[in-house]
Amino acid sequence: MFCVERVIYGAAMGRRRDIILLLHTEGPMPLAKLRDALKMSASTLLFELSALEKLGVVKREGSLVFLTELGERVASIISTVEPLKSLSFLSLAGLRPLMVWLLMSPLLPLAAATLLAGWVTALVVGSFLSPPLSMIYVMYVGHYLPSLLSLSPPLSLIVSLISVAGLLLGIYSASRRRLGLSKIVAGLFPLAIYPTVHLALVWLAQTFELSYLVAISQVLLFVSLLLTATVFATVYSIEMGATYETSLIRSLLAFFVVPALLYLAPLR
């Protein structure tokens, strides 16, 4: 952790930050083109590149300059401050500063294990309610939610657990095993905490006759899907070295657009 922080601080100093972000955006570049784009003298550019090479962030092959795998990660983390300057809603919703801290924290495995245990517990409890709460793909159905399905409690539990396991394994495989379980769960935390929040709101609505809480929970369902898309895009971009914008488009499609369309087309 200390080593990564040292690299980030070293790479973010002065013009090094500009070099890294440009290579992150444009990909490998010849020295001459890099110098022209940054409007730097040749001596200054070579000095900064030498420092970045010592940090293991960039590599040169002849006149071509490119980021290493570590460099891609560092560039993605450094770009965290950019959304804060423009106050982009979806970037802020991705909670990049918080997720950067969490992904680098030694508490991540414990936090992820607690989150996963709470997720599974809520699904187990929800599956034996009337009507049962089920999870299909990334969609929650039943128990005062849209798209009510007539599933028996045991079947509801089986479907929900298969959905969770399939989602985690699918992301792990799609990332070519570069995203560990703890980081995947961290990226899915809005989706993971929703069933607990929903069950609590429904219980309060029934206990104190506050029916509007059910409507609020149904709205929060779509909010949780949107937040899941943005948070997962943040984790993916940081860990895989991809741009946030590209990751966000894919995440929105998988976690928000497709589920929203399915909710709007009632299951029969």
UniProtKB/TrEMBL annotation:
TM regions (residue ranges): 98-129, 149-172, 184-204, 210-236, 248-265
Nucleus recorded as keyword: no
Domain of life where this protein originates: Archaea
Keywords on record: Membrane, Transmembrane, Transmembrane helix
InterPro entries: ArsR-like_HTH, WH-like_DNA-bd_sf, WH_DNA-bd_sf
Name of the protein: ArsR family transcriptional regulator
Source organism (scientific name): Pyrobaculum arsenaticum
